[in-house]
Amino acid sequence: MNNGKKLSLDEIITRDNIVYEKSSEIPFTGSLICFYENGHLKVKRNYKDGRFDGIHEWFYEDSKLEQSSAYKNGELHGISKWYYENGQLEEKVTFKDGIENGLFEFYYKNGQLRLAGSHKDGKHDGTCKRYYEINGQLEFKGSYKDGELNGPFESYHEDGQLMQNGICKDGQLNGPYEPSYEKDQLEEKVNFKYGKRIH
Predict the structure, then answer these.
(1) C-beta of residue 179 within 8 angstroms of C-beta of residue 186
(2) Mean pLDDT over all residues of the chain?
(3) I need a labelling partner for 69 at 20 to 30 A (CA). Which of 103, 142, 172, 186 fits?
(4) Which of 137, 139, 140, 145 shows the shortest CA–CA distance to 118?
(5) Is the Cα dihedral 101, 103, 107, 111 positive or negative?
């Protein structure tokens, strides 16, 4: 995707959000590379016609990958990944034209899945699940639309016992709701309408 030219930070200049090689008036196509003082690679960014394009990578000082992101026409486009210093995947997020769009996953440092769901136009959309760190047990499951809880949801104690369940609309309780203040003992089911208890 580029002409293979590699430059360092002090060899480029940015004008009107377009990157140029200092000795040229033509928008830069190629790679920008930066290093730590110990000589290890710190950052590699790819450009096409002066804009971010292709895979960008950031590294920890010990050379382990810290972040990898895909760009197109200067914007995040594709899958971005972030890693803990121990090499374990921390986040995986899908972008389209610079906006979160598609599946996402977040992980605990021990490798256990923490959160999984999807975005649409930068907002939660569809089913989202959250998990406990110690045992991987499901903590919460809910349906979203336009970033708000919309539809049934459930939450659980660490041992898998149901904590509460209900239905939301536009982020507010709307329908039957059943809480549990004590494990193994659900409280009386109540009903809500647009966030207000009706009986």
Answers:
(1) yes
(2) 91
(3) 142
(4) 145
(5) negative
What percent of the chain has pLDDT above 90?
80
Q: What is the pLDDT of residues 103-137, one digit of tens each?
A: 999 999 999 999 999 999 999 999 999 999 999 99
Q: Can you give the chain as a three-state secondary structure string? A: CCCCCEECHHHEEEECCEEEECCCCCECCEEEEEECCCCCEEEEEEEECCEECEEEEEECCCCCEEEEEEEECCEECEEEEEECCCCCEEEEEEEECCEEEEEEEEECCCCCEEEEEEEECCEECEEEEEECCCCCCEEEEEEEECCEEEEEEEEECCCCCEEEEEEEECCEEEEEEEECCECCECCCCEEEECCEECC
Whole-number pLDDT of residue 190: 80
Residue 25 has pLDDT above 80, yes or no: yes
Tell me, what's the pLDDT at 104? 98
**What residues have CB less than 8 Å from 105, skipping those under 6 apart?**
89, 91, 92, 113, 115, 116
Which is it for the CA torsion 66, 68, 74, 79, positive or negative? Answer: negative
Structural contact between residues 71 and 97, judged by C-beta atoms closer than 8 angstroms? no
How confident is the model over 145-183, as pLDDT tens digits?
A: 999 999 999 999 999 999 999 999 999 988 888 887 665
